[in-house]
């Protein structure tokens, strides 16, 4: 496949690393110039090319810009009917992409995260995209969604990552203060949390795991009680995304 990336930032770097060695020809934008040059030096399949040559020379084009720049950067590029376009941009809905990328009609939106560089990344997508499945499906979990609102909600849910990582880092720092071994502390905390997170948790498995940690007077129960206000904070931070994501102000399911 000839795979192009418009915008060479954090997420393009991770996706290109995830495609390295898979036999694709990869074209990336000259911006960010430093990153593009480093990626071309690191991954032999990568060529740096101007945006119009990327669109003209790719079977699949990934749009990896900040959404506020999308219209200016993408308008006038030689998209064509029959070409696949996959956006990773939050704040760029399908209607807008369809008008900017016409006459291309095979357009999908997905949510890659930096771990896509090594695999194991969930990839919610709407609409279903055979191209995304064929490029990344072997090493990542592609999750086709039923509508664009579900995809928007997944963008909101993906906001958990930084907070969760921050908690793991805080605990590892605390532990290393006593053991003196920062790497071992981080390994321990990460492995402990990973052990609770199967790729396909059965219904109720995570609440049951939480229940098993509720021994009265136990360290987990004590900390969980102390942190109880954070659940409300988390929920209201998620709800704070509703307007931006175009989600209803109240859960339709609860009406
Ligand atoms: N990072 C994540 O974990 C993540 C996850 C899911 C989705 N996303 C989405 O991915 C998109 C990119 O995020 P990012 O984190 O990769 O941002 P980023 O690191 O800031 O990358 C954006 C890139 O766009 C480039 N750019 C600006 N103007 C351009 C132009 N005219 N032509 C070509 N490239 C141009 C920038 O180059 P300069 O540096 O030269 O300006 C930069 O390399 C966003 O819409 C974000 O919502 C990101």
Entry keywords:
alpha/beta, 13 helices, 13% strand, 255 residues, 48% helix, Rossmann fold, binds NADP nicotinamide-adenine-dinucleotide phosphate
What does this 3D model show about the protein?
- β5 (84-87), α5 (94-101) and β6 (106-110) form a beta-alpha-beta unit.
- α8 (160-179) packs across α9 (182-194).
- The longest helix has 20 residues, at 160-179.
- The chain is α/β, with parallel strands linked by helices and 255 residues long.
- It folds into two domains: 2-145, 3-Layer(aba) Sandwich (Rossmann fold); 160-254, no CATH class.
- Strands 3-2-1-4-5-6-7-8 form an eight-stranded mixed beta sheet, sandwiched between helices.
- The chain has helices at 10-19, 33-42, 51-56, 67-74, 94-101, 130-136, 148-157, 160-179, 182-194, 205-211, 219-226, 228-239, 242-245, and strands at residues 2-6, 25-28, 46-48, 60-63, 84-87, 106-110, 122-126, 141-144.
- The N and C termini lie far apart (47 Å).
- It has 13 helices and eight strands.
- It binds NADP nicotinamide-adenine-dinucleotide phosphate (NAP).
- Residues 6-12, 29, 31-32, 51, 64-67, 69, 73, 88-90, 111-114 line the site of NADP nicotinamide-adenine-dinucleotide phosphate.
Write the layout of secondary structure elements.
Blueprint: E1 2-6, H1 10-19, E2 25-28, H2 33-42, E3 46-48, H3 51-56, E4 60-63, H4 67-74, E5 84-87, H5 94-101, E6 106-110, E7 122-126, H6 130-136, E8 141-144, H7 148-157, H8 160-179, H9 182-194, H10 205-211, H11 219-226, H12 228-239, H13 242-245
Parallel strand pairs: 1-2, 1-4, 2-3, 4-5, 5-6, 7-8
Antiparallel strand pairs: 6-7
Bound molecules: NADP nicotinamide-adenine-dinucleotide phosphate.
């Amino acid at each position: 496949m000839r795979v192009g990336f418009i915008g060479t930032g954090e997420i393009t770097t991770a996706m290109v690393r995830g495609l390295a060695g898979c036999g694709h020809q990869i074209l990336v934008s000259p911006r960010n110039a430093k990153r593009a040059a480093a990626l071309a030096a690191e991954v032999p399949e990568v060529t740096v090319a101007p945006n119009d040559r990327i669109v003209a020379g790719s079977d699949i084009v990934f749009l990896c810009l900040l959404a506020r720049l999308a219209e200016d950067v993408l308008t006038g590029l030689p998209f064509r009917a029959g070409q696949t376009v996959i956006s990773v941009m939050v704040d760029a809905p399908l209607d807008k992409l369809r008008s900017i990328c016409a006459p291309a009609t095979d357009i999908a939106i997905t949510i890659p995260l930096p771990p896509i560089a090594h695999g194991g990344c969930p990839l919610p997508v709407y609409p279903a995209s055979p191209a995304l499945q064929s490029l990344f499906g072997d090493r990542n979990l592609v999750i086709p969604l039923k509508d664009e609102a579900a995809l928007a909600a997944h963008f909101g849910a993906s906001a958990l990552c930084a907070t969760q990582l921050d908690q793991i880092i805080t605990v590892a720092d605390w532990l290393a203060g006593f053991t003196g071994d920062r790497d071992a502390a981080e390994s321990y905390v990460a492995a402990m949390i990973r052990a609770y997170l199967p790729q396909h948790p059965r219904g109720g498995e995570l609440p049951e795991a939480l229940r098993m940690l509720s021994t009265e007077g136990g360290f987990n129960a004590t900390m969980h009680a102390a942190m109880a206000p954070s659940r409300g904070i988390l929920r209201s931070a998620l709800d704070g995304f509703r307007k931006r994501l175009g989600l209803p102000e109240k859960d339709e399911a609860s009406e």
